[in-house]
Amino acid sequence: MLTTGETIAETGLDAAALKPAECDVARAVELPFDRVAIDYEGPEHLPDAETLADLSRRKNVRLTTPVRAEGFDPLGDDARYDQIPEEVGRVAVAGHAAYLSEDERRKAVAPRLREAIERDPGAWVGTEGVERLALATGATQFELLSRSTERDLDALRAAGFDGELAVYAPTVLTDDEDEILDAVGAYAARRGPVASALPDDAETDRAASGRAREVLSAASRDYALVGRPDEVGERVARLKDAGADLVVGYPARGIEEFVE
Fold first, then answer.
1. Which residues neighbour 212 within 8 Å (Cβ) at sequence distance 6 or greater?
2. Which of 9, 106, 176, 258 is deepest in the core (most CB within 10 A)?
3. Which superfamily does CATH assign the domain made up of 4-173+227-257 to?
4. pTM for this predicted structure
């Protein structure tokens, strides 16, 4: 029987992403990865400096910092920058609207991304919704997995982009369809093409049936890494063949699935 570490190794994943609203990020020390990314889910869930400093002594840690959010705005209130240990890397992102106030959503992204990268040239840049702006920074591109990711990576490499490319993907290490839909069905349903294809008021978890279940089953494989560890490993290998340097998995069924 494989240990968790051996199972994770079979996936080919390079790092894990954790959501502080879902788990104690201090548990990152239990993960079989040298690299850990911590998502931003609002200021109330921001890990404290002591936790981040402790993690950074044991792991390569990156923290998502939305450039429009108060405290992380390089052209405004940037007080939270100074509260992050310098050993912790950044992932500069525009910021998900769900975690921003109305005023923050109205802020211009482009000048703030540029300033964030000038301030911290080693930062990664989240590309969701701002692909061209992110590419213009020349920083490591942090791509959200989609049905076109392999083609997009191929195109970037063919165009001569020689910077680092990282891919983020919710991950579910099972081929049980009900478990997959419970974990990532709602996530996949929020993607534009999927939302358009779903019947009105469709269930998005294991209760989905008929056309909705067919759409969600396919979409879960487009927008997430799902299946047995070896199946996930095959998808990760294709992403790396297309040009990805790193693939970062978010344990969509909870941190326990990745813990050694």
1. 198, 199, 202, 203, 204
2. 258
3. Aldolase class I (3.20.20.70)
4. 0.94
